[in-house]
Amino acid sequence: MLSKRIIPCLDVRAGKTTKGVKFKNNIDIGDPVEMARLYYEAGADEIVFYDITASHEDREIMIDVVERVAKTVFIPFSVGGGIRGVDDMRRVLLAGAEKVSVNTAAVKDPHIIAKGAEVFGSQCIVLGMDAKHVGKKKNTPSGYEIVINGGRTYTGIDAVEWAKESESLGAGEICLNSIDSDGIRDGYELKLTALIAENVGLPVIASGGAGKPKHLYDVLTKGKADAALIASMVHYGTYTISQIKSYLDDFGVKIRKTW
Amino acid sequence: MIAIIDYHAGNLTSVARAVTHLDYKCVVTHSHEQIEAADRIIFPGVGAAGSAMESLKRLGLDTTIKAMFLVGKPILGICLGTQIIMGHSEENNTRCLGFVDGNVRAFPSKMPSANEICLKIPHMGWNRIQILHDHPIFSGVNENDEFYFVHSFYPEPGKKEHILGVTDYGISFPSVVGFDNIIATQFHLEKSGRSGLNMLKNFCAWQPC
């Protein structure tokens, strides 16, 4: 059977890995190429990069980062942030990424998902979703609303409806980030994750809130996620991927044991 | 020199990077001359069987690769390449190259899973292989080794002895296929970490008898 995937996430700004809390107060914490190599060798099952910069120059730096990562990392990795169309996708994929993730751009123009899937295949297209608990309202029956622009803008779109729509458009996977739990290391949003996982036939990567191995256990079992994104808990050396995997293995979660 | 066949079926740069990382020389090509001059051939691919076969025929590569197969050059199929070497694919009802007798089948829909959600298709992520017949490509492979899969279809050789390894995902399906000078994996050796690189290296050094 498939193993549950443990995926370190690197936010990259101007060629440096950075980390913030609830998308704010970012500080630089290292070289993404070197960090990716170390995580690859430490047993990461996949790596996610988010380019959180906006300028044209920084985008060139990101492509260079992807090319250098691809020379030393032989597991899948995805790149998100600032992907606005098929041309951006092509550049990132040719630089060596396995997948691209679209978030804000897909909300603004959902057809970017369909176009990407048509040209590169669904397996390449990850829908990144930032969701926030807003309570059940008329246009958000699930109680969770999609937010964009790094959590700053509410869209009025229901998270479950958006997940279903992305699947019908051809997304191959969903990376679900809870804005409420992001960066505070108090556990993933289990209810939201399970809700999305039950409503789509796509693999769901849970993101936001990992602070200890038990949080991963919870989201991969009760949360029904296929994979779990981690950041702070490994970036600062609090845990190694190996420690997290041993914990999960002890509690019966199937993980990849050799690397 | 290893020829990585370029037939416009997905991004082949990652296969080339992995081969280069192992210190073997390779070229991503659809040139008949380069393919004929190569010592061995890697036949990768991502995408759908129908358009892949169309591209192969349009580029005239179906006959070139077949000729290389018949003269005994080592050939490695990866993912879609593994499906294209079979006789027929259920994907787009496609007649394939037919080097290996058998069909390519779709995973059954609605296969049950442990957490009450049906197993997701494509089969995407890390999974193990169970080796049924020994082969030089398996040298150094550990029973816990896992490999990266992304696929909705799988090869089903007509002859049992051509199934060298199987993988469980709702059903047990052939994940390593081969005989004579051809070996093919449904998973991505180039994206399977050290375990994948080990098998890729085994292929690069393999001398079929």
Describe the protein.
The complex is a heterodimer of chains A (259) and B (209). Chain A is built from 10 helices and 12 strands. Chain A has 259 residues and is of the alpha/beta class. Chain A has one domain (5-126, 165-250): Alpha-Beta Barrel (TIM Barrel). In chain A, helix 2 (56-72) links the parallel strand 4 (47-51) and strand 5 (77-80). Chain A is globular, with a radius of gyration of 17 Å. With 209 residues, chain B is of the alpha/beta class. Chain B has a single domain (2-205), classed as Rossmann fold, CATH 3.40.50. Chain B is built from 6 helices and 14 strands. Chain B has helices at 13-21, 32-37, 49-58, 61-71, 80-84, 193-205, and strands spanning 2-5, 26-29, 40-43, 75-78, 86-89, 94-95, 100-106, 123-128, 130-131, 146-151, 153-157, 163-169, 171-179, 182-185. An 8-stranded mixed β-sheet of chain B has the order 2-1-3-4-14-13-12-9. In chain B, helix 1 links the parallel strand 1 and strand 2 (26-29). The longest helix of chain B is centred in the last third of the chain and has 13 residues, at 193-205. The radius of gyration of chain B is 16 Å and the shape is globular. The mean pLDDT of chain B is 95. The A-B interface holds A 1-3, 5, 40, 45, 70-72, 74-76, 93-94, 96, 98, 120-123, 172-173, 197-198, 201-203, 221, 224, 226-227, 256-259 and B 10-11, 13-14, 17-18, 21, 46-47, 115, 117-118, 120-127, 142, 144-146, 148, 150, 168-169, 190-197.
